[in-house]
Amino acid sequence: MKERGLLIVLSGPSGVGKGTVRKAIFSQPDTKFQYSISMTTRKPREGEVDGVDYFFKSKEEFEELIQNDKLLEWAEYVGNYYGTPIDYVESTLQEGKDVFLEIEVQGALQVRKAFPEGLFIFLAPPSLKELKNRIVTRGTETDDLILNRMKVAKEEIEMMDAYDYVVENDQVELACDRINAIVTAEHCRRDRVARRYKQMLEVDF
After folding, report:
1. Function, please (predicted)?
2. 140 is in which domain, residue-wise?
3. Most-buried pick from 32, 47, 72, 181 (CB within 10 A)?
4. Does residue 7 contact residue 95 with C-beta atoms inside 8 Å?
């Protein structure tokens, strides 16, 4: 019997480095995760590619997907929609492959309700001061938007109790190592492997 894949959800406040850590994990030669690309209505940042980093959609296109229940989760964050297409996620899990989601906190909480068996990892900044510095360094935000993001970030950090693990993103390489170690441990959990072994015991020698 093929073991169902693991849904891995990486989430955390804006500016914590979710995209950077995800890209670093997927640049590793032994990575076997399937990345589920999120959809968003925000404008692409410099270097971002449609269909690689995000599926960039208009507000009208996104709202049509919401109405047709084609999203596993969706959220509105700082005036833009973000969401995850559901069909790709479910079919990939059934194939026995691990699906990796990098999404905002609101979206992660929705996924938790739909997939409580998933693995939820909260990526945390070393400090709020460092988080603000990372957002400012982007050079893409106005002062008002930076203040808004910091206010939201504080609220999101308070939601970490909804997650299974917390990984501090002090150094990208170390954060990747911690995430990979967590996934390996989860695949070895008794409740994930017991069914396969019980079926094995039913076979006559």
Report:
1. Essential for recycling GMP and indirectly, cGMP.
2. 7-36+97-201
3. 72
4. no
Query: Among residues 170, 198, 190, 21, which one has the least CA distance to residue 101?
Result: 21
Give residues with Cβ within 8 angstroms of 92, minimum separation 6.
5, 34, 36, 99
Longest Cα separation, the chain: 70
| pLDDT band with cut points at 50, 70 and 90 for residue 100 | very high
Q: Is 43 a domain residue?
A: no
Q: How confident is the model at residue 1 (pLDDT cuts 50, 70, 90)?
A: low
> pTM (2 decimals)?
0.81
As a whole number, mean pLDDT of residues 180-185 equals: 96
Tokens, residue 74: 């969706």
On whether residue 45 sits in a domain, the answer given is: no
Q: Number of structural domains, the chain?
A: 1
What are the binding residues for ATP?
12-19
Identify the CATH number of the domain in which residue 128 sits.
3.40.50.300
Distance CA 101, CA 99 (A): 7
Between strands 80-85 and 71-77, the pairing is antiparallel
- Cα–Cα distance measured from residue 138 to residue 135, given in angstroms and rounded to the nearest whole number: 5
Q: Is residue 76 part of a domain?
A: no
